[in-house]
């Protein structure tokens, strides 16, 4: 099920934006929704198959997030899956066991240069949707998703522009 399909503008060059978006250690942990979380990965290059683990140290979180790169086509396209797993092992959690009403999600980011900077198209599909979300009316789902995604997009644009400004100042 397509959960959201949105676009946003980042007023920076395409290669800089893609470099930032594809570097989860640099970018992802700066987003407000990930404050306090820990990101770990191996030293392999940013390529399909690379796995990141996101964990939250608070006792209320009985899971961690496994994020795997599926497609990396620099500087135009980045696709990744994420899924919640048990803390003590890599066993995927079902929608009934995890924090979200789906088993797995896939995010595709497509970047294109434009006069103002870089246009990013973001789509997210969710798989194994169960419970309330599966029964929710499509219009209500789209409206709620659009509101939540607008806030996430605003945060994403602000964080990336700030990170790229800081990188330019460091040079």
UniProtKB/TrEMBL annotation:
Protein name: Polyketide cyclase/dehydrase/lipid transport protein
InterPro entries the record matches: START-like_dom_sf
């Amino acid at each position: 099920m397509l959960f959201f399909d949105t676009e946003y503008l980042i007023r920076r060059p395409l290669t800089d934006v893609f470099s930032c978006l594809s570097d989860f250690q640099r970018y992802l942990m700066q987003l407000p929704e990930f404050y306090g979380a820990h990101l770990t990965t191996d030293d392999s290059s940013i390529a399909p198959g690379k796995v990141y683990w996101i964990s939250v140290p608070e006792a209320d979180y009985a899971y961690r997030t496994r994020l795997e790169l599926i497609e990396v086509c620099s500087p135009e396209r980045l696709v990744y899956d994420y899924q919640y797993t048990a803390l003590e092992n890599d066993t995927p959690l079902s929608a009934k066991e995890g924090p979200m009403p789906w088993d797995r999600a896939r995010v595709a980011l497509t970047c294109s240069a434009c006069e103002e900077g870089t246009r990013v198209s973001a789509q997210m599909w969710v798989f194994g949707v169960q419970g309330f979300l599966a029964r929710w009316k499509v219009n209500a789902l789209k409206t709620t998703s659009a509101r939540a995604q607008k806030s996430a997009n605003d945060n994403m644009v602000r964080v990336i522009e700030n990170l790229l400004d800081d990188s330019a100042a460091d040079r």
